[in-house]
Design a protein that fits this description.
With 157 residues, this protein is α+β, with helices and mostly antiparallel strands. The chain is 41% helix and 15% strand.
């Protein structure tokens, strides 16, 4: 018995089509039921003119945003009595975090300068900080929790 030659079927059309628009290559899903949307535009993280000093610090630390565009802070039960939780920062909260960050950087620079000038001056400062940290450790988390409550509203992620 002789076999009949097998006819090759045509392959199905490709699912994706690549087109060029405005010097960019776009991939279009031809199986999608909707018309392709415009490619997403990169949104620059705008910094308000009044917050120019600390805003880049906040923008670098808190990149995750909610649906309303507010930055999200995730806490830990180690330093937040209500943690873990997610706080959507208000503009006032962003300014407070920026001020705290700049203050921390300034204190670290002063301590580094003291250590460079004379290392013996640094020892009394470290001892005082350790003693004070031990003395207020029981009330520390409640202070931090109250401060975190003032930064914005609690939200689900």
């Amino acid at each position: 018995m002789a076999r009949a030659p097998r006819q090759m079927s045509k392959p199905p059309p490709p699912r994706y089509k690549i087109v060029e628009r405005d010097g960019r290559l776009l991939t279009i899903d031809t199986w999608a039921t909707q018309a392709p949307d415009a490619p997403p535009q990169r949104r620059a993280d705008l910094i308000a003119p009044g917050d120019a000093l600390g805003a880049p610090l906040v923008a670098a630390l808190f990149r995750v945003r909610d649906a309303q565009g507010r930055r999200l802070l995730t806490t830990s039960p180690n330093w937040d009595r209500k943690g873990p939780r997610v706080i959507a920062l208000s503009s006032t909260g962003e300014r407070r975090i920026a001020a705290l960050g700049l203050l921390s950087i300034g204190v670290m620079l002063v301590l580094l300068l003291v250590a460079l000038i004379d290392l013996e001056w640094l020892l009394p400062i470290v001892v005082v900080v350790v003693v004070l940290a031990g003395a207020i450790s029981s009330s520390r988390t409640s202070l931090v929790t109250r401060w975190l409550d003032s930064l914005g509203e609690e939200t689900s992620r």
